[in-house]
Amino acid sequence: MKILTIHSFAVHGTASLKAVMSLLGTRVLPVPSLFLSGLTNIPGIVKTEPPLEDLLESTFSIAREREEKLILYVGYLGNAAQVNLIRRMVERHRDIIQNIVVDPVSGDHGKMYVPEDVVKAWPELLSIADWALPNYTELTLLSGENDAASEEEHLQAFRDRFPSLSHIITSMPHPSQSRLLLYHNGIGHSYSHKRENTNYSGTGDVFAAHFILSYFFRRQSPVQAMRMASEATHALIRRAIELRSADLVLE
Fold first, then answer.
1. Which of 42, 101, 170, 216 is deepest in the core (most CB within 10 A)?
2. DSSP helix/strand/coil, 246
3. How far apart are CA 55 and CA 5, in angstroms?
4. Beta-ladder partners of 187
C-alpha cells in the first residue's frame, strides 16, 4: 500500500512533503500542490503552481497499472480549485483508494493563513474523508460556528457537520499542556503532554506522518497511534530546541 500525498513542497524549512517523505520514505507517492522557495512564514518567498491535474491523473493511472492500493493524504493546497479537482479524481479512482486522510491546513494560533475560499472549499473533501487532523484554529474555521462559540460548541458543530468523520484535534487550548482530542466510532479520547515554550513549523505534518505509519501500517489502535505520534513529535521538538535549530531536524 502506498500513500498518495498531495501537499506543498517548500525548499527552506522542514514541513509538508519534505517532512512526510523523511518519515514515511518510499511509501509516499508525492504530488506537490504548490512549490515554494520557503515556508510561508519566511519573508520574500516565491510560489509556483504545478500542473496538478496531469500529475494526479498520471499518478493514479500508474498505481492502477501496478495494482497498488492507496491511502490518499491531502495537506496544504495552493488554491480552492484544487479541492474540486481532487474530489473528481477521487470519484474516478475510488476503487483503489482504501482510506482518505485530510489535514485541512488553514491556520494556527487563532489566525487564518490561507485564502478564505480555500477554507470554504475544505468541507468538499472532509465530507468524503475517513480521517481529519485539524488543529484547534482549523476546527473553529470549519465548524460553522461564530468566533464567540465555546470549545464544546465548536467541537459539537464540527461533529454534526461531518458525522461519519473520524478526527483528531491536534492542539486543543490549554495553558501548559499540548492536548489532543480523538473522536472515532462515536467515542472520544484525549491525550496530553507538557507543552514546550517554542513553536516549530511542520509539527502537524510530522504528527500526521507518524499517525499514518502507526495506524495504517503498524496496525495500532487509533488511541495508541495518536499517543505514539504525539510523543514522537514532542521528541523532535525537544531535539530541535537542544540543537538550537530554527527548524525541526529529521534525520
1. 170
2. coil
3. 12
4. 184
What is the three-class DSSP state of 146? coil
Strand duo 28-38 + 2-12: pairing: parallel
Q: In sequence order, what E strands does the chain have?
A: 2-12, 28-38, 47-48, 70-74, 97-102, 107-108, 111-112, 131-132, 166-172, 177-184, 187-194
Helix/strand/coil for 114? coil
Query: Exposed/middle/buried for 13, CB within 10 Å: 0-12, 13-18, 19+?
Result: buried
pTM assigned to the model? 0.95
Number of residues in the chain: 251
Locate 127 and state its grid cell. 465530507
- pLDDT tens by residue, 63-113: 999 999 999 999 999 999 999 999 999 999 999 999 999 999 999 988 898
Nearest in space to 39 (alpha carbons), one of 90, 67, 76:
76
Angle at 116 between CA 209 and CA 143, to 5 degrees: 65
Residue 79's identity, in one-letter code, is: N
